[in-house]
Design a protein that fits this description.
alpha+beta; Beta Polymerase, domain 2; two-stranded antiparallel sheet; 6 strands; about 20% strand
């Protein structure tokens, strides 16, 4: 994993941010690795969590002048840091499910000195199916083929 990704996840963990890693890194945790140009992190879009996110982003060294706690507590916001292959996408919404629906079935994995929560397999599939993009449907096929 890119060191910047690990540093951000460490900052989120230290600030008690409620988040789930989604996208290709989650696919890898579920047994089907694929190349990606970014880290997708889905945050719980609440005021309290948004305050923790801004604090963690500041600690991480991200440019936060253009993002507010109100933005991060609102659905449909994507905040991007960097450029591929080291880009980080922070998402407040995922197609096809809510954060509160996905949180109970998260999968926790240890990365170095931190525990990281990933979207669970069924929620991952539900999101990818709802999105319907060709690459998302291919992810589902690869994952279901691993059964």
């Amino acid at each position: 994993m890119n060191p910047d990704f690990t540093d951000l996840l460490r900052a989120f963990a230290a600030a008690d941010v409620r988040f789930l890693v989604v996208g290709a890194y989650a696919l890898s945790v579920h047994g089907r690795p694929r190349a990606t140009g970014d880290l997708d992190v889905w945050i719980e879009p609440t005021s309290a969590n948004a305050a923790r996110v801004v604090s963690a982003l500041t600690e991480f060294g991200a440019p936060v002048a253009d993002i507010t706690e109100a933005d991060l507590a609102s659905a449909g916001v994507t905040y991007q840091i960097g450029v591929p292959p080291g880009r980080i996408d922070i998402l407040t919404e995922l197609t096809g499910l809510t954060f509160s629906d996905a949180w109970p079935d998260r999968v926790r994995r240890r990365f170095g000195d931190i525990d990281v929560d990933f979207i669970g397999r069924e929620a991952f599939i539900r999101n990818k199916r709802a999105t319907g993009r060709t690459k998302d449907l291919a992810d589902i096929e690869a994952l279901e083929g691993a059964d």
